[in-house]
Amino acid sequence: MRRNELALLPKLPLLITESAEEFDALRDAFEREIKPQGIIEQMYVHDISAIVWEILRLRRCKAMIINAGFRNALEHLLMQLLTGPGQYEYQVQDEAKTLAHSWFTEQEAKKQVSEVLSRFDLDESASVRQARPAISARSRRRRHRSSRC
């Protein structure tokens, strides 16, 4: 592309976590594939590149949002599950937070979470909505058993 044609194309606003070089590589790949003739086709290539870049960005954001929501839900679920008879949730909050955050990166944490969940007949695929009624019922039974002692 000629220098004066490049000036007509808007610079794509990138997030601070994104790479201008990666966007340029994507646009260059589209240019090699489409082989635009003239400024109008060049603008189309630029627009297509920007749209694809935004789709990739949104997919990354979606994954981060889901993971963050899952981490928070897992942390709250673990707080409820780890709280023993006579304990308060704040007493296990640090352990639950550490396990929930480590679950994404450490095999040992995944194993520990699986063990905790399995004690309540749950697994990682259990949603918080499905888990809450099971926790409430088990907590009531556990409290009832501990009050008989």
Notes on the protein architecture:
The chain folds into two domains: 3-62, no CATH class; 72-148, no CATH class. α3 (38-82) packs antiparallel against α4 (93-102). The chain is built from six helices and no strands. The longest helix is centred in the middle third of the chain and has 45 residues, at 38-82. The protein is rod-shaped and about 75 Å long. Helix content is 73%, strand content 0%. The N and C termini lie far apart (82 Å). It has helices at residues 3-8, 20-34, 38-82, 93-102, 107-118, 128-148. With 149 residues, it is mostly helical.
How are the SSEs placed, and which strands pair?
Layout: H1 3-8, H2 20-34, H3 38-82, H4 93-102, H5 107-118, H6 128-148
Helix pairs in contact: 2-3, 3-4, 3-6
Task: Please give the alpha-carbon distance between the first and last residues.
Answer: 82 Å
Which series of helices and strands comes N to C? HHHHHH
**Helical amount among residues, as a percent range?**
over 70%
Q: Give the number of domains.
A: 2
What structural category arises from helix and sheet content?
mainly alpha
Explain briefly what this protein structure is:
Helix content is 73%, strand content 0%. It is mostly helical. The longest helix has 45 residues.
List its salient traits.
149 residues; mainly alpha; 2 domains; 6 helices
